[in-house]
Amino acid sequence: MSTRVPLAGDFVNGDVSFWYRSLGVPVAKGPLEGDRDADVVIVGAGYTGLWTAYYLKKASPGLRIIVLEKEFAGYGASGRNGGWLVGELAGTPERYAKTHGVDAAKRLQRMMFESIDEVIAVTGNEGIDADVVKGGVTTVAVNAAQDRRLRELLAHERHWGWTEEDVRLLDPAERESRMRVDGAVSAIWSPHCARIQPAKLAVGLARTVRDLGVEIFERTPVTEIAPRAARTPYGTVRAEYVIRATEGFTAGLKQYHRAWLPMNSSMIVTEPLGDLWDTIGWEGSELLGDMAHYYTYAQRTADGRIAFGGRGKPYLYGSHVDDRGHTHEWTIEALWDLLTGMFPAVKASKVAHTWSGVLGVPRDWCATVHVDHSTGIGWAGGYTGHGVTTTNLAGRTLRDLILREDTELASMPWVGRKVRGWEVEPLRWIGVHAMYDLYRRADARENAGLGRTSMLARIADSITGR
Questions:
Q1: Chain segment 330-353, per-residue pLDDT in tens
Q2: How far apart are CA 392 and CA 381, in angstroms?
Q3: How many CB atoms are located within 10 Å of the residue 137 CB?
Q4: What backbone phi and psi angles, to 5 degrees, belong to 442?
Q5: What is the pLDDT of residues 384-438, one digit of tens each?
Q6: Weakest mean pLDDT among 27-31, 229-233, 323-327
Q7: What does residue 141 show for φ and ψ, rounded to 5 degrees?
């Protein structure tokens, strides 16, 4: 490791995530043993699968529900994310409105806001201590180009129904009183975000659904999803409904190899910062994001660290996944440079842990929920990094679709959305790496003084269709 990044004496690279390091990595329970029958079988014990099981069992306690998980519950993005319980749409309102109208797209946005409070309510009702604090989110701009984009974003959100109570521009005095980001020229704040400890939420949800009578079989990889059946090396589970809740690991199923791209995201976490907080001025538990193309996300953890994330090595050829979470040295250096660029005082600290995970990205960058009653196959995912909140809304939507309830949830514009698959290799690899290379170059030009969004970023957007 480069000496440019100071590492704590007990530094860890990978090993799932810091969130699990602080809890202890769960010991996966025994696998499925032989064929089974159920009413609903869910493939994947992350947030999507666990929320779906939770709401189904609450609505219909007699349902026989089985969850199949390759590793342990919460092993994937659910236990590795940045801990942003945020109300942003997993997709663009324009695309949802194109098929269902403006009012439906605006209502979906409101449902996302409401889902934050729903998650908080469930954690309280079920006794899940996930370090939840609803402190909102501050988004900063640190150069002229970012400032222009921030104001354009604010106008866009106003157009789509975000009121002054949903998001507002901070005056310089309030911006500085919240946190002192070096070089910040403007910032907006929204109350629609809460900090969580992701692994605590996953572990708590798994315990809760087991207590409700849901069976979770870990160390049980699913090799094929078929009508009314999920096949594993240890037996087949036959059920009226088979729900795919595999998000960033979806490409590992041959039949869905090009459905969602597994995009890597990486994080570092510092040692507890102690007196350094006096210089940083981040007294609350709000989340922090920026307006860079190669954007970053951060939280102040319950034990006084900064957990800081961004895109690392964005994509592995052939949609392969490094599921151990090891992070490349240059990614650690890049994240450290970004973090200490925002907060120079953090240079006096050290990196205690770094890890990576994958999120699912559809070709149109919009999440979908679907249940085909003729085959029994359903799914939810493609959250593009907004899954902590969106999975809850997806779980409730899958509940209504499976139970054939005619509800507002079941008619939202992301239900049944059809999206074409990603291109074949090597086009996927070339396109994704070209996109992020262009974004990095665009950020560099804007940081050097370009007063508008770099054309390189617009080219990157056109490549990927964002």
A1: 999 999 999 999 999 999 999 999
A2: 11
A3: 24
A4: -65, -45
A5: 999 999 999 999 999 999 999 999 999 999 999 999 999 999 999 999 999 999 9
A6: 323-327
A7: -120, 135
Please state, in angstroms and rounded to a whole number, the distance separating the CA atoms of residues 331 and 313.
7
Listed in sequence order, the residues at least 6 apart from 103 whose beta carbon sits closer than 8 Å to its beta carbon are none
Give the CA distances from residue 41 to residues 354, 380, 396, 410, 416, in Å, rounded to whole numbers and listed in that order: 34, 14, 16, 20, 20
Q: Please give the pLDDT value at position 3.
A: 54
CA atoms within 13 A on the CB side of 44: 29
- The phi and psi torsions of 64 (rounded to 5 degrees) equal -90, 110
Q: Which of 464, 454, 465 is nearest to 430 (CA)?
A: 464
48: amino acid identity, one letter: T
Secondary structure of 359-426 in the HEC alphabet?
EEECCCCCCEEEEECCCCEEEEECCCCCHHHHHHHHHHHHHHHHCCCCCCHHHCCCECCCCCCCCCCC
d(CA 19, CA 262): 21
Residue type at 369? V
Q: Are 429 and 311 in contact (CB under 8 A)?
A: no
